[in-house]
Amino acid sequence: MKKRILALIMVTLFFNLTACNNSNGKTSSVYEISLSSDYDNSNEKSLSFFAMDTYMNFKAYGENAKTAVNEASALVEDLENKLSVTNPESEISKINSSANNAIKISEDTLALISTALDVNKKSGGAFDITIYPIVKLWGFTTGKYEVPNKEEILKNLEYVDSSNITLNEKEGTVTVPQNIEIDLGGIAKGYAGKKAAEKIRSMGIESALLNLGGNIQTIGSKPDGSAWGVSICNPEDSSKQLCRIEVVDKAVVTSGGYQRYFEENGKSYHHIIDPKSGYPAENGLLSVTIVDEDGMLCDALSTTLFVLGKDKALEYCEKYGIEAILMTDDKKIYVTDGLKESFSIIDQTSGYFLAE
Ligand code: AMP
Ligand code: MG
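YS: structure for the whole thing
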């Protein structure tokens, strides 16, 4: 059996500034930041580090910039220790290994689980942090990728149901029954970006750009006062920039099947699972980008809308006032009204076109 394992996250930021992040879990060595020569980066402080299984880069401008990026990266590392499902000491591991016991959790974990439960309800179960038993079966946390057999999937699907999570916000505790396990992989990086941005803002920084391996968090505008340009990859060739969105003080988060996947017997299987089937979501969507002030919400919703598929995703956006860019396998790009002015296709040769 020929098995090829590929994982790729490519996000490119450009305009005067370009940062390419090519992450392949811990095995990737590609990380590159380049600034064009006309860019005044004299007061820029840039820090690259590895956290949450991806390469990250934080840039901040102005006084305190160096301390700000250092403290923000320390904050991300601290969050990783609390949230990582593969770290036996994390709060999440404690919850997962303490069936029927109320586990005291930090404000961070509480905020994350609370948002995850809310999105779970609003999406009719498309976003479900109790997906972990299924994610494990496919090998996405261990790297031992394999297509599980149907019986195993069906058996483990019984454990996928967020209504099994008891969150006591007053006491700050969470309880899960036997076999129910939580994975915050679909939301944690967005939260880390949000908290890092809060930290950086609190230090008086008005311009910063945080790249958390594909989750982009901007703070203010570029130092010259213009908007940040964030490019979104071609989902069929993630080495290419396909389109661009200009943002100020917002997060831009993309979920796509091309970001992490493996191939078995000529078929590829990605890491975003439809909780209804236990299989990678396949509905014609290739990528979903969410743009919002709240990076945590962006992260949860990019995963959610990817599972929902184009029609339900657009309904969700309409109902809850969410701004999104959806790319489908018939090369259409759907852009919600609030983003139309700041959106542009940059690769005219890609064959992708704006859907009506
Ligand atoms: P993202 O890259 O943000 O779309 O998140 C994908 C990650 O979220 C996966 O690697 C899993 O850890 C987790 N995940 C996969 N499917 C789901 C789902 N339906 N709901 C919540 N989390 C999921
Ligand atoms: Mg996500």
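YS: worth flagging: The chain has eight helices and 21 strands.
IM: good catch. Also The longest strand covers residues 237-247.
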